[in-house]
Amino acid sequence: MAVNYRGFIEEQVESIRRQVGDGIAINALSGGVDRSTVTVLAHRALGLRLRTIFVDNALMREGEPRRVVSMFARMGIKVELIDARRQFLKALKDLTDPEEKRQAITDTFYRDVFAKAVRRTKAKFLFHGTILTDIEETVAGIKRQHNILAQIGIDPQKAYGYQVIEPLATLRKDGVRKVAAILGLPADITYRIPFPGPALAARIVGEVTEERLATVRAATEIVEAELKTTGAFQYLAVLLNDYATGIRGGKREFGQIIVVRCIESTDARKATVTELPWKTLHRLARRITSIPGVNRCVYDLTPKPPATVEYI
Ligand code: XMP
Fold first, then answer.
1. Of 20, 236, 265, 308, which is the most exposed, with the fewest CB atoms less than 10 Å away?
2. Distances in Å between the alpha carbon of 281 and those of 227, 260, 298?
3. Among the atoms of ligand 1, which is closest to the Cα of residue 307?
4. pLDDT at residue 64, rounded to an integer
């Protein structure tokens, strides 16, 4: 059955106004299409009674926090940028286990940073960008718990009166993109390739440090620029926790290794590898090995399964 997305937007705006009344609501923005769409939808319903924050967790792509904040400013939506870089880097220090790293990021975000913003703004309503696929994957045990209240350490049983609103819970990604386009979000956000919640930390095998983040951030910028016209489902750069011998300026050096991954998929549950032209691969290798400390670049030929898309 064809969905009337304009009707959907009107219904959601009405429903948000009904639920929030004259209260204050808060949401955390990222550069992703789901949270961006929720922000515009909730802002349309509530105006200044929606407080939107963007948390700089030190794990973002080059220039991302400022780019997102100014993009929303151009749409007339004020976003508060919270610099929590030190907190996240501290929480990630010495961690190498993938699950421990993910947990540290989740805890720092919800328990420390977001919970503080909720208290400060006195918001009683929290918007969440959950989509139908997230709910299905949570129920099926594929994804981790999406219950935002539990994540910020608030026990709903204690009747704090907080309410989570998930306006996109009946839509899949393609529906969200249609709503985003109607709401006037820039194509850059509406048709953006997937990017994981743990951001660049998902692309570092081993410890996440400022220096290693700078390396993977530089590689990410190169990969995204070189592959943006491929139309591939997703492309990324990963920093391995291993070293290889190389030669630079006539001297042997023990350098770092970057993996480039580029895949075709419809929903990321299964993926095949994009057959990139040799010319593109050579250019990627040349540019990536010009990053200080990196002397090898490899292209990952593994489909999903058996590999996953990300490395942690
Ligand atoms: P995997 O690595 O499981 O990834 O094959 C499948 C898709 O999900 C994205 N991904 C994540 N997205 N939080 C997210 O929001 C995460 O922790 C996460 N891990 C993986 C990944 O980029 C791919 O599109």
1. 308
2. 10, 9, 9
3. 5
4. 95
